[in-house]
Each structure stands twice: as structure tokens, then as C-alpha cells.
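Q:
My hope is that you can spare some time for a protein that puzzles me. I hope you can help me see how the letters and the C-alpha cells relate. Thank you; the sequence and its C-alpha cells follow:
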Amino acid sequence: MNFPKKVEIGDITVRDGFQHEEIFIPTDAKIWVAEQLILAGYKKIELTNFGNPKGMPQFKDAEILMKGIRNSKLVSDLIGGVEITAVTIREQAVERAIQAKNEGWGPDRILMMVSTSESHHQKNSGLSLEEYWKVAEESIQKAHDAGIKVNGTVSTIWGCPIEGPTDMNKAIEFTKRWLSIGADDIEHADHDGSASPDRVYKYYSMLLNAIPETEKHIVHFHTTRGWGLANVLAALQVGMTRFEATMGGIGGQPANFVSGVPVSGTGSYYYRDPNITGLVSSEDLLVMFDEMGIETGINVDKALDIGRMVERIVGRRLRSESIKSGRIPKTLSGRK
């Protein structure tokens, strides 16, 4: 088995993780998590969504949150080396990000998203795919002019919770299209846990045959059916080196019920139990990489401490095994 010696892990707890929670996570708690992640060594953090907070109130504090981390005294010496991302699905959110950048507190990078499934894409964006591609091309140019990088995400690669099976070849075509209109990197997303390890291996093999620059590609797995780390292993075997995860494995569809109030979110949940839809656990991923001798540049013990605190913030047991079991002892008398 041939694995990379070094990988990059981006943490998206504060955005993707908390967006699925049915209680509003206090802004101060979000800032604390982001600060601690930076202190632990994370260089890529997805912080918020600049879309309309009416349907996704978890992001009503986007401006306060962005300014809070930009002005944090705790990480002032480190923030210059950290890439902060905000999600901007539609053009209004892109404009908001550009204005924020011009005012000195905006994101370094924004994320736009297409799904290979037309119905899933329509539900997420409110536009047809062809309409969205036009918006994306214009938005990328505007963002670049403002000094903002753009990530182009491709979703429903391995299946769609609405339509069912999808064609992986279409995701390769969409990746090429993103790059052709100027996207800086591509997130390849299994947003509902449809991917199985054999098809993960097949897809990333196809991808690197078509576009071999691994630095342009980001691996994003949900672990709805418990296959998350197995899928990471399959992607590693192909040679992928950039991954995303969340503390406690939280995340998923934006909540449609927040702090006692029904909201639109993205509509009804795809799965009856909303607590099974999260991403691969950052803590478990880090401990696994550490055991495999794969360098991440992240303080594993500090990450485990953050994970334990995230459990307290959300108020329930999360899906990390490592925050309970800890790292594997390296000697008879103690831990590493």
C-alpha cells in the first residue's frame, strides 16, 4: 500500500459542522473553536456562509464571526498564514464577500457549488445548472479581481439522495469546466454518504488520469453509513493529499429547525435521523494518520481537546471515537 507521506487537512467545523445543528451555536463559541483550530496548526478553515441567513440562521453572525477572527489577539501572529473560506452559493453572497474583502475583514477564499444531479443542484442553488455556470464564471472573475480565491465544488459524484445513482464521468467533466473558468481548486464531495471505497478508488483514479495535479483537488466525505475512514484510505491509496473533516464528525444539510423555530434550510432532511449525516471526524482522521506515519502539521493532542469541547458546545455525544479512547500508547507506561 503506497500512501503519501504528508497531507493537508482543512477543518470545516464552524461552517459545515455547525450548520446542521438545531440550536444556534453562540458566536463566541464559534470564534473560540476557530482560534483553537489555528493554534493547533490548521492552515485551512471554512468559517461561515455569506448567503441569506433567513433560511439558515446559523449564519446570521457571519460578519461578527469574520471580524472576530480577523481581530483576534489570540491568533494575531498566525492568522496571516491561515486561509479563511466562506461559502457563497449565489451571486449576492459573492458580492457580499467582495465588499467584506474591500473593507478588510472578508474571506481569502469563497466556495461555489454544482451538483451532477440537476434536482439536487436546483434544491441547493435555486438555479438550473446552465444558469449557474454563467453566474459562476462571472463571479470567479469578480472575486479574482478583488483578490479572493475561488473553490469550485462538485457534489453528488457517487449518488444523489433525490435521484439515486449518478455518473462519475459527469463529475470529471464538471471539474474540467470549473478549472476552465478559473476556479483555483476543486472540492470533490460525497455530501450524503453515498460513496463506497471501491468507487472512491475508481473515481479518484479517473480524476488523476484526467487532471494529475493533486494540489488542485480536495477530498470531502460524509460518513452517513460509517464508511468515511475507509473512503479516506481508498483516496489515499490513489495519491490524494488534501482532505476536509469536522470535529466530532458533525455537519450535513442546513438545519430546518433552529432554537425552537422552523426555518426553510434546504427543505426536508434526506435522512430520518439528522445526526447520522456528518463528515469524517477530524479527531479520528488525525489519530489514524499519526499511526500511519503521515504528517499533517497539526497538534493531535490539542485537536482531541478541541473535539471534547465541541461535544460540550453542542451538548451531546458526537461521532469521534478518539476523543474517548485517545491516541494509541507508544510505551508501556504512557502515551505519545
Summary: The chain is about 40% helix and 15% strand. The longest strand covers residues 109-115. The chain has a mean pLDDT of 95. The first helix runs from residue 13 to 17.
